[in-house]
Amino acid sequence: KTPSQKKKKEKKRKQEEGHPEIYPLVLTTKTQEIFNCRIDEDITDEQPYKLINKEDIFEDLRNRAAVSDFHPVKKIVQEYPGNELLLVYDKDFKYGLNFYLIGTEEGKENYLNPPEVSEEQEEYKEYIPEDVYIYKPPVSKPWVSLGSEKEIEEESVTESTKQITYMISRKRSEFGAPIKFSDQNASSVKDAYIECTAYPDKNFTLKQLEKDVGMQVIPQIKDISTQTKWTYPKNATTQYYPREFSEEEKETLKQSKPLVDFLNNASISVEIALQQNEITNTFIDDWKHLAEEEGTFGDKTDTHLKEYQSFTDLHSPTEKMITCVSWHPTIYGLIAVSVAVRLSFEDRVHFSGKLLLQPSLILFWSFSDPIHPQLMLESPDDIFCFKFCPSDPNIIAGGCINGQIVMWDITAHADRIENVKAGGSRSKKATLKPMFLLEPESNKEAMYIRHCAVSSIENGHKKVITDIHWLSDTFEINRMGSVFENRSGICCQLVTCSADCTICFWDIRPQKPLTPQTTEKKKEESIEIPFDVPSTFLHLDLSWKPLTKVRLSKGETSLDHCPTKISLKEDHLLCKTQDKVLAQSKTAKAEEMNPYHNLESRMPNLLKPIDDFCTKFFVGTEEGEVIYTDWKMEKDPETGRLMPKKPVSLHTIHDGIVHTIQRSPFYDDIILTVGGWNVAIWKESVMTGPLLQSCCAPKRYTSGHWSLTRPGVFYIGREDGYIDIWDLLEKTHEPAQSQNICITMITCIKPWIFSPKQQFIAIADYYGTLHILEIPWTLSRPSTNEMTSINHYFEREVKHLEYVEQRKKIREQEKKEMEQEMAKKKVKIYQKSKEQMEAELKMDYESYLELEKTVLINLGLIRVTEKGSYSDVM
Amino acid sequence: MEIGEEAEVEETLKRIQSHKGVIGTMVVNAEGIPIRTTLDNSTTVQYAGLLHHLTMKAKSTVRDIDPQNDLTFLRIRSKKHEIMVAPDKEYLLIVIQNPCE
Fold this sequence. Notes:
Order of helices and strands of chain B: HEEHEEE
InterPro entries (chain A): Dynein_IC, WD40/YVTN_repeat-like_dom_sf, WD40_repeat_dom_sf, WD40_rpt
CATH class of chain B: Alpha Beta
CATH topology of chain B: Beta-Lactamase
CATH superfamily of chain B: Dynein light chain 2a, cytoplasmic
Mean pLDDT of chain B: 89
Low-confidence stretches of chain B: none
Number of strands of chain A: 37
Distance between the termini of chain A: 202 Å
Strand content of chain B: 25-35%
Number of helices of chain A: 19
Largest sheet of chain A: 5 strands, mixed
Protein name (chain A): Dynein axonemal intermediate chain 3
Keywords (chain A): Coiled coil, Cytoplasm, Repeat, WD repeat
Largest interface: A-B, 28 and 40 residues
GO biological process, one term (chain A): inner dynein arm assembly
Number of domains of chain B: 1
Strand order of the largest sheet of chain A: 6-7-8-9-13
Structural class of chain A: alpha+beta
Radius of gyration of chain A: 71 Å
Number of strands of chain B: 5
Oligomer: heterodimer
CATH architecture of chain B: 2-Layer Sandwich
Helix content of chain B: 40-55%
Low-confidence stretches of chain A: 13-18, 422-433, 435-445, 514-526, 571-592
Main location (chain A): cytoplasm
Strand order of the largest sheet of chain B: 2-1-5-4-3
């Protein structure tokens, strides 16, 4: 039988043997309904079987006979011992049909309670091998030697010698007895020790001929460890002082030889190094130093003066012109202007009645209010020049057209003008506001301030005062013109020059009364003063006499020089006033005592004279001359009177009235003079001529001023309203720039510095308008080394003048020589002999006759053919 | 003899101090303790301490590079002035100069 057939049979057999009771059945739905074993309704997966009664099956068999599904298993059912048969739903069709019936009781039992063992037995029974292994325990056999016991014997460790055993015993009585140990030197007792000394045995010495050593390169390793103990963090500080030698030690060291030697050696190299530095700076970057200073404020190309503001007095009935302008020394944005009526002399006389009724004023303009002047100072007549006092800007001195000096004291109104700032909206305090914003009561009336004092009419000047200056507070002069030190610390003396050819020095302090008579006289003639006028200069009022008078005489003739402007040495009113005045005003406020209110009389005998003080000064005249003269008086030997000295030098340079003589703010001895149609620059020590003299300008120059920040720049105003800006570094023959300001003659120019970045220039014109312009960056900022360049320029010019002088001398000499030569030549000519001269004359006469003949023939007056001597034809 | 040497020391130092632009001169010993000076005490001590260290460092640098070399002069140029140090075995001469004209 083939294995497959065998297997089938086995399977069959298994079915019959293993499960002989299984009888597959097909149950129709009708049968299912009858026996309540409908699929998925009565018979589910959990309970896929049903126990069916035998009798039910018999009944079904009887009902349906052959149609019944149980028909094929009828016999089995009949032979079934039990009552109930198990019908199982064969879902998977394992036995071929959808149901199967279990025919025996055992099968039923097995199915319902399937034993596990039976399954294993089934599995096990499937893999039964053919051979069956029977376990037999091992039987001992005799050992067969294979040669391994030799190795074992060799490797095993056995005792080669017999061991010696010693037994040491002690007497029993000695057990437990106290033991005494003592030291004993082994060598002292005989046989106390047996020695086994080592000795070199040749048999055992081995000479090593080869050594096998292994080496390895490793990096150097260092192990260090420490242990720190930091209980709690805290700051640790150390205070120390440097070690120093005491004085004695220093002295001893100083004298030690090594130090001397060291210094001698070291000083050589040190001096070489020091000299190297003195010779040249090796680290200088020439390229960087070549460039101009950077950081310009504003446009560099902008060189025009920019119009800032202009002021005109709109309330005056007649037309006025501005005669003098002055910036307030301390208050920003305040400028004072003196106005005069624009009339000629005849008209003045003509309208003198009307003019008396109008007040002559000095107006105070502020940047914040261009329409209304802040203050108006009254004066008896038109003011042609005025100056703020350098030590106290509340004192103003002005020169009148009638020859009087007028003094004002505006201390009472000082706070009024101090609070005025340009651009009033910026200030936070309740400052002066424009009139239309205030209540009608306050500030309604214009503040007219009357003058405090005027000088004496008889003793002062007789004609218009053309210039007025305060003398510096460092010196004062007496009647002789000698210079003394000034102890009062304030400016107390004035100098004026006037068209009556005199220069007067005035002192504002009260004079000591000469005789008691005069005081009584004064008391009688005391004039009632209005109550609102301060009494500062009461002592001067109407009785003020000049201290000294210097007359500029031209020698024997009665005509004198008519001074228009003067320039003294210490005339630094331009920029340095601010610091001085601030310092002084501070001290004055601290003391609460204005020195001007407590003027003490002069004490001429107690003052110390100042030696070697230069009492010379420059004067410009109406005729265009520049005079350098001395104010010190000297005693005339003949008459015994005090006579002024003769002028040191006199130059007629300008073609018209000299209206500006001004010292440069940078150099003490450089003076600018402007007059007529040209400009001249002088150096005080060089009296041969001006350093620079410009050629005639197309228009007359009417005003001039140095620039306050640039040493080589000055401004000139012309009669057509143009301003010429000269820059000596750029051009010296003509102005660098020209700008139109107004339509009429410029009468006064005054620049002023407010801050390093803001500079203004005030230009006054003939029609009474004051123009304020802003100076651009290029004109206000000096270039690097400008001062040294201008210095060099002036030095060159001085040298040029000297050269010209020398050349003049040489030229004169040459001229003399030439004249001598010429004279000699002429003498030679006249030495010709008489005969020669006669012969020459005859020849001349004959040639003249010939000429006469030819001319007459040509004219046709003589006929050649008709007349003629035979001698001629032949 | 001693007086002559002392005068010599004074004269040398005066000569150095009178050079153009010299601000101060000082002599310091090998440990940095000033011996002679023309400046005030606190400035001197500060200069001596700092420059002594710097000179030692400079000297050791030069000798590390080439053991047969030695430092002869040390000049430190700063924006404002120049400090010159002349070292020796036992002393240091320090001069401060303002080289700008």
